[in-house]
């Protein structure tokens, strides 16, 4: 999509800064929940007792439905196939790379060895070919040192205010976070968190989502009340409506959506399961700014991620 049009109240190109009009997606031909990541991803569930072929076919249909739905709304979708058997989480490309205004691509170190093979030169080359890329920053060499920062799973980036919100976990190393923020000119805002079982939530993007005019946030899992209040105030002062979601809604992937720019304005892509969990008031507050676009991805969600995790946003200028 070459010329996205925003909502009438979006303030010029403001909407395009936070809500990209293009994404990268990956079609996994041998999808399965990854046993290597289950230890700290409480959202993962076992694969149902059906054949591998049937399960993989379900996953492909869901990925295709997401891509098709987004394209129908005017979002540009770059789709890549993964035919390999050693990258069960490749459907979640937002963890290994991110893109940034000004022409920067950043590649990240991944905690699970099986996820490191998701990095692909052909995706980077496509971005260089079709968008203006000035620099590729690669932090993946820090993996042997046990330092990990899993992209926009670990970080929720406020591109308007240039803040990186990060739930503390073993997948968000503070050393790399500081290095990343210094390099791209963002301010890190790390917060402690615990689920009801007392464990840190594996990725921030299941508990938080930032759009142009609203933010979804599960405040009840933030264990430092002063930091919680600081983050809510920061988001509010940025002009956003901060919408609190409950932990129960988090388990339905209510926080795992992404605001995008389509031909008719902003949309909020999320799973059908997530959309069904919103209260009428929450839905109205989201839709004051962006149209909710729910897509059914129950098979993909067994791997512990949802629609947001499936989308790597492109914040680069077209050539």
TrEMBL record:
The keyword Phosphoprotein does not apply. Keywords: Transferase. GO terms for molecular function: transferase activity. InterPro entries: Amdntrnsf_FN0238. Pfam families: DDAH_eukar. It comes from the Bacteria. NCBIfam families: citrull_CtlX. This is Amidinotransferase.
């Amino acid at each position: 999509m070459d010329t996205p049009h925003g909502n009438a109240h979006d303030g010029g190109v403001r909407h395009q800064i936070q809500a990209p009009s293009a994404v990268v997606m990956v079609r996994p031909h041998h999808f399965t929940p990854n046993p290597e990541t289950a230890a700290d991803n409480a959202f993962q569930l076992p694969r149902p007792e059906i054949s591998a072929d049937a399960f993989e076919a379900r996953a492909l249909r869901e990925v295709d439905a997401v891509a098709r739905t987004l394209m129908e709304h005017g979002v540009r979708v770059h789709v890549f196939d993964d035919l390999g058997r050693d990258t069960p989480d490749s459907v979640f490309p937002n963890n290994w790379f991110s893109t940034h205004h000004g022409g920067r691509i950043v590649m990240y170190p991944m905690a699970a060895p099986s996820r490191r093979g998701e990095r692909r030169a052909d995706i980077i080359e496509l971005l260089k070919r079709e968008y203006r890329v000035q620099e590729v920053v690669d932090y993946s060499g820090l993996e042997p040192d046990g330092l990990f920062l899993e992209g926009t799973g670990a970080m929720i980036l406020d591109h308007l205010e240039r803040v990186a919100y990060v739930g503390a976990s073993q997948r968000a190393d503070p050393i790399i976070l500081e290095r990343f923020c210094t390099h791209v000119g963002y301010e890190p805002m790390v917060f402690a968190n615990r689920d009801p079982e007392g464990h840190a939530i594996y990725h921030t993007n299941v508990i938080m989502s930032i759009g142009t005019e609203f933010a979804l946030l599960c405040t009840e899992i933030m264990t430092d009340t002063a930091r919680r209040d600081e983050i809510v105030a920061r988001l509010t002062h940025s002009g956003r409506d901060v919408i609190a979601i409950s932990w129960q809604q988090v388990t339905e992937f209510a926080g795992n959506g992404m605001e995008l720019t389509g031909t008719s304005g902003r949309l909020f892509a999320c799973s059908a399961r997530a959309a069904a969990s919103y209260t009428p008031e929450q839905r109205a507050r989201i839709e004051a700014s962006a149209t909710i676009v729910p897509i059914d991805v129950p098979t993909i969600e067994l791997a512990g991620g949802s629609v947001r995790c499936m989308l790597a946003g492109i914040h680069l200028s077209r050539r």
